[in-house]
Amino acid sequence: MDTDSPHFKTPGPASRWPGARLDRRAGFEIEFAAEDVRPVASLVHRLFQGTLEKINPHRYQITGSTLGKFTVELDTQYAHPDNPGAWKDMDDIEDMLEVAVKEYVHTLIGDLSKNVVPYEIVTPPIPFDRLDELTPLIAGLQALGAKGTDESPVYAFGLHINPEVPAEDCETLLKYLRAYLLLSEWLREESRVDVLRRLSPYIDAFPMSYAMKVLHPSYQPDLSQLIDDYLLDNPTRNRELDFLPLFTWLDADRVKYSLPDDNLTSARPTFHYRLPDCRLNDPGWSVAREWNLWVEVERLANDPAKLDKMSRAYIKNSQKWFPRNWPAQVRKWLAQ
């Protein structure tokens, strides 16, 4: 288990499942602080080519790059007008002024909030065997002076990883959910998650009662029950591994019924792994390291015997008066 490798590892076995997605991809959301978005957008353009387009003062897109479409933007909807520049084509002076003023207000909000709200680079889905192409992007951000999670007490910035699911059947998804629940505490230790982010609501751990239910051998739901049980115990986007984008992709009506006020979740056939920091100033940190930690979830999900044994051990340990250190037990399991 070498998670500190500078190279992105590939999970392996899942791609050989009958009916599994071949050539799986993963997208990344890289959050950071910067004085201006334009140099960052220019960096992405220089590294990956394509066409650079300014959408508004706080959002740029790079289309037709060597990897696909990148977006570089301030991570708040309030900084982005719905239809920038629309006022220029209006004939009615009152309508034109109203829309222009609203657009100016969005820009002003972005200017005022950019020292607290992160900018983010949203990558396209990238094939697993091309993830190493992201490495120069992190070096470029560091050279530009972009600031990461631990450079300010208010920077609760994250690195979100969105691996495509290998398949969409309940059995597959349950294996991944169980694997993550078993590795959650270990991942928090290995990722050295920033104290502020631990205290924030953005990456809450799954409730123990939910973990115990899902890990029990008798828990054999169909897809509808899996989604319903998840929504009952996790009615939020703010989980360290957020299944809402995936469940919205699979059954949008069911999710909307349970969470009618959630207007931010976008449907996509991916896991939404929200736990890692984005520590740009830490020489020992890399996107590859965080990805390689995720790969351990992939590998455990694809080892049914180990998954079953660890689930039983977790339940037994959790029921003790004085439970043993679970992350330490995980390290032994993963070394086998």
Description:
- With 336 residues, the chain is α+β, with helices and mostly antiparallel strands.
- It has a domain at 13-33 and 118-211 and 220-304.
- It has helices spanning 37-48, 93-113, 135-144, 170-191, 195-199, 208-215, 223-233, 244-250, 252-258, 287-301, 304-318, 326-335; strands at residues 25-32, 51-56, 59-63, 70-74, 119-122, 126-127, 159-163, 241-242, 272-273.
- Strands 1, 2, 3, 4, 5, 6 and 7 form a seven-stranded antiparallel β-sheet that branches. The chain has a two-stranded antiparallel ribbon with strand order 8-9.
- α1 (37-48) runs antiparallel to α3 (135-144) and α8 packs across α9.
List the helices and strands and how they pair.
Layout: E1 25-32, H1 37-48, E2 51-56, E3 59-63, E4 70-74, H2 93-113, E5 119-122, E6 126-127, H3 135-144, E7 159-163, H4 170-191, H5 195-199, H6 208-215, H7 223-233, E8 241-242, H8 244-250, H9 252-258, E9 272-273, H10 287-301, H11 304-318, H12 326-335
Antiparallel strand pairs: 1-5, 1-6, 1-7, 2-3, 3-4, 4-5, 8-9
Which terms would index this structure?
single chain, 336 residues, alpha+beta, 12% strand, globular
- Beta-strand proportion: 5-15%
**Number of helices, counting only DSSP H or I runs of 4 residues or more:** 12
Task: Compute the number of strand runs.
Answer: 9
Mean pLDDT over all positions: 85
> What's the alpha carbon Rg, rounded to whole Å?
21 Å
**N-to-C SSE series?**
EHEEEHEEHEHHHHEHHEHHH
Report on the biggest sheet.
7 strands, antiparallel
Q: Could you name the ranges where pLDDT drops below 50 across 5 or more consecutive residues?
A: 76-81, 83-116
Query: Helicity range of the residues?
Result: 40-55%
N- to C-terminal separation?
Answer: 9 Å
Query: What sort of overall outline do the alpha carbons produce when their principal axes are compared?
Result: globular
Task: Supply the helix-strand structural class.
Answer: alpha+beta
